[in-house]
């Protein structure tokens, strides 16, 4: 009997070994590639509606070949494990098969369930304990062999399991494993979203019962999948190289337990920041936000000092501060934003022919938003700017920013709508309102501390001239102060160009430039704007420049914000403002309308043919290509058709008039002239692209002024520097480019277009070609408007003694004098009668000490210079 029983046991064991293939490594944490036809089809169908960001999947494909790959998510979820296993496999991406601390049984093939059961029973029979995939070395062996794992950072009773029951911590296990490997382990966070609605600090009843959108329960998850699967999407965050993490100096002296805590915190922070970059920070109620601001130590101490200094009861100061917050604060409402998104989509499709966006840089911006709050800095050409930018961000799975808006836009009912979309309101000046200024700065501090992205227009208001104005540094200063006080660890500045083939506010800009009063925003204005909905405005251009990390900028210049004096901090602020304006200018799109406007206004004659226009436009295009400027797609694809379309548009809008004597003349015989009353509007579109031509214009005028066909680059420096200083209120110059560098670049472009020829034997010497003089003039003429404007202002200074007229009367006299000069043909350009140009000229002359007729010597010096340049043109 014993012999038979022994033989039977041996046979059973042989059968068991054969069934188990000689190993007990059959664990439910492993989900095999082939789940069976029925299971595969069910899972594929179920997960098919979830969006996977295709722009991010290269992160998974581009990892080092020898890398051990581990995915991580925030909360333990079999739903997510099945999704990553199924969809990544279907999309031919590295997919997880090992779930660390997962017990996947329901979706296993029947044969594997049998193997797992048999392996566990046989192992227990032999060892009187259950098999452990960690202690047996199974997990390490499978990961080293190339299988991919998923580890979750949080789970119910996870801490109890690790600290009380002393179960293996998978994070600690990975660190231990990394220390014994030469190959790097890459941990790649995966984030699943069940909508883009931001979380609220106070959960709703639905959140309590069915789980939050961040960690939905089974019912809420299923409802989302069947009701609207398109709202569910997955983002892939930046991989963490565990090998590098373990070798960090701060981790070198720590025990493995502390390193595992540090890694878990790092991954949690990265996932939370990435999630926040998509849906925005947790939304607090307006009352909670106000409470946080009003009770902060900084504001409370300031209000106490303010109360004592002004002898005002403290309760009145509190009441005043509370009223200021009511005036300022946004009231972010995602439901309003979603509704607005639908309306904006309809509006854009009705008015415009499409939006051109540099998606590659937008992806960089989105990636940088995972690290710190974004400070979005667009140029400001239209009221549509903030609407369009928020719409584009929302459509690209980014939260709408908090937008600094002028208090003039807080009128009913638009003010309430703007607040709901993230607008907070700012007064045009803080002069005399020190408590308001302090409350506002605390609001900015709170927004940064909460992690909100902030958008503001560094020009202050909309540009009425078409070019970027000098930076206004007030809000930028507040942001830097908040950063210095520890509101956030970094700020990511994003310069953005927003431009239009045609702006909707043409008529109001013309009215204001010519001296008319700006009409206050109101509901009546909104009603009047209905007529604009019956027109078409061409294309919209949105170009993001590379984001600028404030920490990186400080580090590059060896600066510490905490060790700066107020003067040094102001210098940093000015430098940053200048960089931002230049960064916006550098991604400006040159459109057919901007080129045509430049050719029209810079034409040396009052009448011109298509061929003459073509010559000038070709000259400009050649220069732009040499500087790698962004050209509108329509110009790149078919320049001739694009320019013809622009000519037709200008003709329909009465900007230009055909003056051919016969209707049956050929196109080559047709001549045009500019409608004098429309010149200021054409100037607006010319100024859209003038920033690219300013260096060439300065250099061209410096060459023409020399009145010689041979010169060196050093000869041009005095003339260039004079013009740069003269127009310092008109244009922003790059802080890292010296005049010598700019001149050399302009000369190179002129050589490429045969305007100049290098001297064959003399270094740094150039000869002007026969066609070159003509081309130099059409570059220099970009500045003619400004010379005439400044000439008008200077004549007023020559006529009136100091303090004989106040500032308002001076502007009126300048306008009247300018109109008389124009009517008497003493100046040629109607667009020179610009109040913006006049004010910039006043500011410049005041800065150099010209205040009235007594400053005769300086006045005569500049008048002579202006007349010299105008005669050259």
Number of domains: 4
CATH fold naming of the largest domain = Glycerol-3-phosphate (1)-acyltransferase
Mean pLDDT: 89
Low-confidence runs: none
Alpha-carbon Rg, integer: 34 Å
* Secondary-structure content class: alpha/beta
β-sheet strand percentage: 5-15%
Shape: elongated
Count of DSSP helices?
39
Helix content: 40-55%
Largest sheet: 8 strands, mixed
Distance between the termini: 121 Å
Topology overview:
Layout: H1 2-20, H2 37-47, E1 51-52, H3 58-61, E2 68-75, H4 78-90, E3 98-100, H5 110-127, H6 138-144, E4 149-154, H7 158-164, H8 170-179, E5 185-194, H9 205-210, H10 218-227, E6 232-236, E7 240-241, H11 242-246, H12 249-252, H13 256-279, H14 286-294, H15 297-310, H16 314-328, H17 334-351, E8 355-357, H18 359-368, E9 374-378, H19 384-395, E10 402-406, H20 414-420, E11 423-426, H21 434-450, E12 454-455, H22 474-484, E13 492-500, H23 506-513, H24 523-528, E14 540-544, E15 548-549, H25 550-556, H26 566-586, H27 592-601, E16 607-609, H28 610-626, H29 633-637, H30 639-652, E17 656-658, E18 671-674, H31 679-687, H32 690-706, E19 710-712, H33 713-726, H34 739-752, E20 756-758, E21 765-768, H35 772-780, H36 784-799, H37 807-823, H38 835-847, H39 856-872
